[in-house]
Design goal:
Layout: H1 14-19, H2 25-31, H3 36-43, H4 52-57, H5 64-69, E1 98-102, E2 105-109, H6 135-146, E3 153-157, H7 166-177, E4 184-189, H8 191-194, H9 201-208, E5 213-217, H10 227-238, E6 243-249, H11 257-269, E7 272-279, H12 293-303, E8 314-319, E9 324-327, E10 341-344, E11 350-353
Helix pairs in contact: 2-3, 11-12
The structure holds pyridoxal-5'-phosphate (PLP) and iron/sulfur cluster (SF4).
Length: 356
């Protein structure tokens, strides 16, 4: 496995790495065996950014890391069961970029930029464009949170909130920290995995000032855990920041019980506690990543009992139309094969779920 990616001029700051990302079909086809026309067509709909660090980890065509970042014609496949926003994030958004689904917490999408554009992204509809969230939008979101007495937690998400510069992160954290009813802040980021150089000493020092601060990271495959990503996670953990993982169950990436177990074990070693294993949402452009729920249950059965319970995440599906997340438990009993799944959420409402 490769160690830190060093550019010819020796500058491996995260800004430099980001600036050197592959963002055009021409550049990609020069270094990877891809069809330029396919990449061009996919890019008319969805953005591409592959930074040199993550690029350096790809070891095989169509392998688990390749699939997550190299555009694929399958993204343009039509499927009427899939929608850009099946979870109704937009209808549940009282102000731009903020989703208020549960009474006590809000999801605040403060950035539309990412260190890499994941092909399986559940927010494919809104990642990429620059300026989607302005400073004004962020201020409006903060004002909304301040006006909501029941909101105890703010989850910063995106895109990737850590693509914002340090000074904007600092301003936002201190604004949220000053709201009396907000007990804690959680950050959802992929940077410790996709661009661990982002976790600088300055950033860690800044985070220290805003405890209790929790960080959840999306790691999807054991090959994403390198010396550099391990160092990034350890420096956050050393600063007293509890780390969790939110892995997405993805066909051709980690839909294998042994791969998943290796990932969970590696995460524990770098002090990242497996939190959720997300069933892939029915998002337009991601059909080729979706597995059956049965696959997920079999993986859960495999993990439970074979490895430390500390490393067994909850397997979750997010119900359509804003129903919220619910845990899926493996059937340890005996059951028939369901052709139509229906689930009940925390409020007792029943939802149909599109199955494979
Ligand atoms: C996932 C999600 C949350 C957080 O849910 P937890 O179960 O607390 O991790 C909050 N708001 C929205 C809209 C979400 O999708
Ligand atoms: S980092 Fe997260 S938000 Fe950004 S493209 Fe990947 S999955 Fe989507």
């Amino acid at each position: 496995m490769s160690d830190i990616y060093t550019l010819s001029n020796g500058d491996h700051s995260w800004q430099r790495l980001l600036a050197d990302s592959i963002v055009t079909p021409e550049a990609l086809s020069r270094i990877m065996p891809v069809d330029m026309e396919t990449v061009r067509r996919v890019m008319q709909k969805y953005p591409m950014r592959i930074n040199p660090y993550f690029l350096s980890l790809i070891s095989e065509k169509n392998g688990p890391l390749w699939r997550q970042c190299i555009p694929d014609m399958e993204e343009l496949a039509q499927d009427i069961a899939l929608e850009p926003d099946p979870l109704w994030e937009e209808p549940q958004s009282p102000v731009a970029g903020l989703v208020h689904r549960y009474p006590d917490r809000v999801l605040f999408m403060v950035s539309s930029q990412c260190a890499m554009y994941c092909r399986h992204c559940m927010r494919k509809r809104r990642v990429g464009p620059v300026g989607l969230m302005t400073e004004k939008d962020i201020d409006r979101g903060v004002a909304y949170i301040r006006s909501q007495p029941d909101v105890r937690e703010v989850i910063l998400s995106g895109g990737d909130p850590l693509l914002l510069p340090d000074d904007r992160i600092e301003r936002l954290l201190s604004q949220l920290h000053d709201i009396p009813q907000v007990d804690m802040i959680r950050i959802h980021t992929r940077t410790p995995c996709t661009l661990p150089q982002r976790i600088t000493g300055d950033l860690v020092a800044l985070f220290r000032r805003f405890a209790p601060l929790y960080i959840n990271i999306q790691f999807n495959h054991p090959d994403e855990i390198t010396q550099v990503s391990a160092r990034a996670c350890e420096s956050l953990a050393d600063a007293g920041i509890p780390l969790g993982s939110q892995t997405v169950l993805l066909k051709g990436v980690n839909d294998d019980p042994e791969v998943m177990m290796r990932l969970m074990r590696e995460l524990l070693k770098i002090r990242v506690r497996p939190y959720y294993l997300h069933h892939a949402d029915p998002i337009e452009g991601t059909r080729h990543f979706r597995t059956s729920i049965e696959t997920g249950k079999q993986i859960m059965i495999h993990l439970r009992g074979r490895m430390s319970g500390m490393g067994v995440p909850h397997y979750m599906i997010d119900l359509p139309q804003g129903g919220g997340k619910i845990p899926i438990l493996p059937d340890y009993g005996v059951s028939g094969k369901p052709s139509k799944l229906m689930f009940r959420n925390f409020a007792g409402e029943v939802y149909d779920y599109p199955c494979e």
